[in-house]
Design goal:
This protein is mostly helical. About 90% of the residues lie in helices and about 0% in strands. It is built from two helices and no strands. Pfam families: ATPase_gene1.
């Protein structure tokens, strides 16, 4: 009779181990999804904020220091480039 109890204990432990592993995988998947949403937001704001601020600066420069070219467009492109560089660095940093 000792053999069936040992087998039952063995299978019980095996099932418990697999259950814990599966629950942990599900929990990690949920965290990964939220991490993805957070990363999406962080990348979005990393591009949006510099673009918006530099465009506002360009509008101010156009009003106060007019030139033959558009300060607004120049600053918009510059802000977009800076924002993309910031976002790219953020993604690389988080990927490591």
């Amino acid at each position: 009779m000792a053999q069936p109890e040992n087998e039952a204990d063995f299978f019980g432990r095996m099932i418990l181990t697999k259950e814990k592993r599966k629950l942990k995988a599900l929990d990690e998947k949920k965290r990964a999804e939220w991490f993805g949403f957070g990363m999406f937001g962080m990348v979005g704001w990393s591009v949006t904020a510099p673009t918006f601020l530099s465009t506002m600066g360009g509008i101010w420069l156009d009003k106060n220091y007019p030139q033959s070219f558009s300060w607004t467009v120049t600053c918009l492109i510059t802000g977009l480039a800076v924002g993309c560089i910031i976002a790219w660095n953020w993604v690389i940093k988080e990927d490591k």
